[in-house]
Amino acid sequence: xxxxxxxxxxxxxxxxxxxxxxxxxxxxxxxxxxxxxxxxxxxxxxxxxxxxxxxxxxxxxxxxxxxxxxxxxxxxxxxxxxxxxxxxxxxxxxxxxxxxxxxxxxxxxxxxxxxxxxxxxxxxxxxxxxxxxxxxxxxxxxxxxxxxxxxxxxxxxxxxxxxxxxxxxxxxxxxxxxxxxxxxxxxxxxxxxxxxxxxxxxxxxxxxxxxxxxxxxxxxxxxxxxxxxxxxxxxxxxxxxxxxxxxxxxxxxxxxxxxxxxxxxxxxxxxx
Length: 272
What we know:
This protein has helices at about 25-35, 50-55, 85-95, 120-125, 160-170, 190-205, 220-225, 235-240, 255-265; strands at about 5-10, 40-45, 65, 70-75, 75-80, 105, 110-115, 135, 150, 175-180, 180-185, 210-215, 230, 245. By secondary structure, it is an alpha/beta fold. It starts with a strand and ends in a 7-residue tail after the last helix.
């Protein structure tokens, strides 16, 4: 089967442990993808601006699934956006005020916000992920529709916090685990899998013409939507047990290895 689209998660998948990738190797692969008219899709929980910054020379050529599927942009054209209702956003803001040890960033389509009280060490730690961030006194001052709440949880009680937040947002929003003690609160109908469906319809591409790569829980729906859903070798065992296709580790340029193998051999690499 001919591949027409390749979707890649970023952190823990396309990017290595230093949040980098082999640009020279990728550029060579990307030129072949362009020649064969294979769409390259960046699928991440990160904001659109952050994702563009990873590919500065070709940023307007790519397709982006940003905010875990809440914002889809195809070669500069917005295809889809979703946001939490004002009422649900306020419910979440009120709940977070009772959890001062939970650190929060709030994302709209074009802007990210955090509180003025956020410790500087965490502001600097997460600045690469929220490059267009503003500090404000209260999240209720945000006027634009909220696409996502991005939370960093205290390591000592992650499960408890996830349980409490899940109870609060039940049937109003959904919580996805992004790994590394980070979770996102996003609109109920949003997921990377739903975003893939939108792109399939828009681009007239079927599930068996798509390769996708991921490593974390928020990638599961995307990987299940396509025939060739690759889990990274560095993913947790529960992820690898669910899928047929395994790619080498993110530190071994696993995504590039699998794509390169397909382009050279017209066959599908599998480490399993």
